[in-house]
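Quick log. Single chain, no ligands specified.
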Amino acid sequence: MLNRAVAWPDQFDNPHVRYATRQLKPNERDVSRVWAEDSTITWLEAPLLIGAQPEDGIRVRRKLRRLGNEVLRRKTLEMGEGQ
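-> predicted structure:
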């Protein structure tokens, strides 16, 4: 079982990572956390460790990629407005 004493997103110093991980549903967060904390497993293997389906790992990876792209888009807009 994953330790939830401190919310996982709150453990990150980077505000963009905190934003992205807060957008995940609890089961998506669990998949991403298992993957992030073990560099030897794949996105297909991570869900199996928490009783989810392998496809969930691919879906979470894609969602995180979309969220990351959104963070980059917003940051680019902010930088353009500051000039």
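The radius of gyration is 14 Å.
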